[in-house]
């Protein structure tokens, strides 16, 4: 999973059946300083009610539920990131 | 999923059975300014009737439907992209 | 799927059962001008009878057939590529 | 699988059901000298009780158990790495 | 699949059940001149009895056998690589 920030959304009326009703979020990967990285943006299906500016966990290939395969998804909203590379 | 533009198509008569009847589109990934990126082009199966120049969503590995595994596919035609990295 | 050129082959007698009888091709990814890119070479199982110098479609993870999972495969021989990024 | 170091963890209360109860670790990929690489950090589910500073093996897509699909996971704690590129 | 050289191995006593009894090899991807590339090293499960210095085929996600999902694996030992990009 990657740490990313919700940076927008996408409107698409003509889409395959599996995406109907899905909220399509633009998410941009974060660097080590929690800043968005240039040209590292994906579109992910929201599954947790994430909003603009939220830091989220996104799974490139959502395989967490065998009965419910999905496209790239936002799977959690992140409250805090503890990081220390020196240890 | 990635944001991409349809930049061409591919003709291939000799192909594996699973690809027969498929429309094979050239899609090129878009950067943060919605411009096509150099050397970031893939071939994707069309599943939504996308045409030349359309901005589309493409899934690298199409796992949206358990009964219908497919190669990389165009899964939606994008009408609008709302993006704001400052938030 | 990626556009690639068949640039060689690999001989391997000691291999896992699933690869027995497979033709192992070296394929090199093509850039926007259809030239092979440096250090972008993979080994793919041939499933369409591709030969040296052929331009092919290769699927990184061959998921086209649910009953017949395979390693990276050449899935089509390309005759023509139509490409126009200006549109 | 990649060699990585546990460099932190993530707190996320709002998450999809499949992640409930999971320990979410920040892991940073190691270079050839076993140093953490900049901007190569992922979030992985811990399955072996790894702690801060541990060198671990992480599987990008955890497919080791057919009945138990999971997101990116830490699958082993590494005690020693023997490496010699000259041979 | 990628061409890689066995450049070491990893000792890990604390690991998930699916990895028990597995031989964990360090493999480093080869460039066009069959030289190991910097910072392109992975850990793969050996399934063919590969040894230090062997050139091998490694599958990033081993999907060759539906009943036997595995982590990244060494699936063949390479004897000869024939390569000609000029054709």
Automatic annotation (TrEMBL), chains A, B, C, D, E:
<dbReference type="Pfam" id="PF03319">
    <property type="entry name" value="EutN_CcmL"/>
</dbReference>
<comment type="similarity">
    <text>Belongs to the CcmL/EutN family.</text>
</comment>
<dbReference type="GO" id="GO:0031469">
    <property type="term" value="C:bacterial microcompartment"/>
</dbReference>
<dbReference type="InterPro" id="IPR036677">
    <property type="entry name" value="EutN_CcmL_sf"/>
</dbReference>
<protein>
    <submittedName>
        <fullName>Carboxysome shell and ethanolamine utilization microcompartment protein CcmK/EutM</fullName>
    </submittedName>
</protein>
<keyword id="KW-1283">Bacterial microcompartment</keyword>
<dbReference type="InterPro" id="IPR004992">
    <property type="entry name" value="EutN_CcmL"/>
</dbReference>
